[in-house]
Design brief:
42 residues; elongated
Length: 42
């Protein structure tokens, strides 16, 4: 699937690596009582 986006909105490789690292380490846990806690793994 091809996406057409302007070159202005393309982030740098460094920014993409940071986003991927955060997405990989971010976790959210929902408990039975409906509460949720989010945390970041190292």
């Amino acid at each position: 699937m091809t996406h057409f986006t302007p070159d202005v909105f393309k982030p740098s490789e460094k920014t993409l690596r940071l986003i991927k690292q955060l997405a990989y380490t971010y976790r959210a846990k929902t408990f039975n009582d409906g509460s949720m806690v989010s945390f970041c793994l190292n």
